[in-house]
Amino acid sequence: MLTPEAAWQQLEPHLRPLGIEAADRTAAAGRVLARPVVATADLPATDVSALDGFAFAAPSAGDRFRIVGTTLAGGAFGSALSPGEAGRIMTGAPVPPGALAVLGFEDCASDERSVRPRVATELGAAIRRRGEIFRAGAELLAAGERLSPAALALLASQGIVRVDVSRRPRVEILVTGDEVSRAAGELRAGEVRDSHSDFLVAELRTLGIEPLRGDLVPDDSATLRERLRLAAGRADVVMTTGGVSVGDADLVAKVALELDFTTLFHGVAMQPGKPLFAAARGETVLFGLPGNPGSVMTATWLFVRPALRRLGGEAGGFWSDTVHARLEGELGAGKSRDRFVPARARLQGGAWRARSLSPKGSHDLVAFARANALLRVVPGDPARAAGAACDLLLLGEPG
Fold it and tell me: Do the strands 237-241 and 284-289 form a parallel or antiparallel pair, or are they unpaired?
């Protein structure tokens, strides 16, 4: 059986970015840049004042200067300053030609006609020089970066209206099993409510992906074959839940082979999520997630989420976005396969702390619902006490 790293290596060649499309800046939050963004103008565009005060031709503490004008942000002074002259200037206003420094109002004594600096200052003080942040033509954002609200503000400052972004994956969800129900009322004997759809849809939305659709599919080969055929024809990624173990009703892998999917792996040496199945047909990737809630969640966090990010033009992979932490309680020893444990993580004094939630099994939905991180216990790891080092995969939004 493959280790998690070996399983990811089988999957990785099928995770090339899906293509490029143009997006309006106002609708590009969370999108991933497909090409670098280059500055269209210098920033600042000219020399400007960093504060409200007076611009001086040659400031000298104690000397008196004649006030010859006022400049507001967006305006112009109109003439150059000569020795012995000063001008009132506001934050962001262009510095008049001849000005060598700016002093704040609080550092000056003035009346309507003249001003006297109270303190000495260096030449160039409080002047933001043209292009000191960047020059036109400089790369501002690299390909592969996710566009944050601050990044959109940067684009707006440059007058950039449209950007080239990576296409987001089209994803379809098939929840299999005769026992699964979406009934709000009382369940019949043997039925369980569908919790997988809500989890998977919410996870997709953290990546900015709206699934094409989500169906409940019974344990019937013909029905599953038709639903999977249709899904594979319109989606880049299909996710199924249940039906990937070794029981009589575990049909996903068999039906996928009948539809000419090539198995990438079936079974990973990890707990929970051991029956995880992955296959590919052309440009379509299929993830057959196990049926227990903890297994669905763990397989999604470890494999599906980084795979979707790769398809969408981002970097990353299996267990690649971890942080170092210290345990706040005990963590058991490793066994025969990798164990991924739901945990509560918190940041204290700039360092991460984590506490295992000790699930009773992959069906323990309470432990996984309370988790905001995963801990990893590698085979052969000794038991660890509180204060020991550990690696932590945070489960918040990716980037």
Answer: parallel
Amino acid at 147: L
Residue with tokens 């009773």: 360
Which one, of 116, 120, 115, lies nearest residue 67 by Cα?
Answer: 115
8 A C-beta contact, residue 382 and residue 333: yes
DSSP codes of every residue in 360-399: SSTT-HHHHHH-SEEEEE-TTPPPB-TT-EEEEEE-S---
Q: What is the pLDDT of residue 398?
A: 40
Res 62: pLDDT: 79
Handedness of CA 238, 240, 246, 247 (dihedral sign): negative
What torsion do the CA atoms of 236, 256, 239, 392 make, to the nearest 10 degrees?
A: -100
Handedness of CA 12, 13, 15, 16 (dihedral sign): positive
Supply angle C-alpha 138, 139, 142, rounded to 5: 175
Residues 6+ apart with CB under 8 A from 294: 272, 273, 342, 359, 361, 362, 363, 364, 365, 367, 368
Interval 229-261: pLDDT, tens: 999 999 999 999 999 998 888 999 999 999 999
Q: Are strands 322-327 and 277-281 parallel, antiparallel or unpaired?
A: unpaired
Q: Which residues contact 392 (CB under 8 A, 6 or more apart)?
A: 322, 323, 324, 325, 343, 345, 352, 354, 373, 374, 375
CA distances to 256, 264, 269, 317, 320 from 6, rounded to whole Å, are 22, 11, 10, 12, 14
Q: Residue 166: helix, strand or coil by DSSP?
A: strand
DSSP assignment string, 17-80: ---EEEEEGGG-TT-BBSS-EE-SS-BSSS-EESSSEEEESS--TT--EEEEEEE-TT----S-
Residue type for 258, please? E
What integer pLDDT is reported at residue 345 of this predicted model? 94
Q: Please state, in angstroms and rounded to a whole number, the distance separating the CA atoms of residues 265 and 253.
A: 10
Integer Cα distance of 17 and 308 in angstroms: 9
Q: What is the percent of the chain with per-residue pLDDT over 90, rounded to a whole number?
A: 82
Q: Which residues pair with 389 in a beta bridge?
A: 326
Q: Kindly give the parts of the chain with pLDDT less than 50.
A: 397-399
Inter-residue contact 373 to 343 (CB < 8 Å): yes
**How would you label 155-190 residue by residue, b for 16+ Cβ within 10 Å and e otherwise?**
beebebeebebbbbbbbbbbbbbebbbeeeeeeeee
H or E segment at 5? Answer: helix 4-11
Handedness of CA 394, 273, 235, 369 (dihedral sign): negative
